[in-house]
Amino acid sequence: MKKRAQGIPPDQIPEEEAWEAVKIVLEAPEEEIFIIGELEDSTFEPPEEVLGAQPCEICGEWVSIPYLRVLGNKKVCIDCAGYEEGFEKIFEK
What we know:
Elements: H1 2-5, H2 15-27, H3 30-33, E1 53-55, E2 62-64, E3 69-71, E4 74-76, H4 78-81, H5 87-92
Antiparallel strand pairs: 1-2, 3-4
């Protein structure tokens, strides 16, 4: 670890020295490495994105708004919209 702090690339550190750092973790008591306790309920809120995202109204997968397509009256992902052409073919038209 001292060599990495000195800026020495990992591939230039002898393997036996690199394993010293691994041994510290492998040999440490469980309570020093893990937090063991009761699970708490939590709610997931999708992260805010610069462009925003919405779930596909068919499969439910979250899709960045620029990639949503309108199919009938639903906003859907590209796969559910049935697109099979690549961008190259779209721009050739």
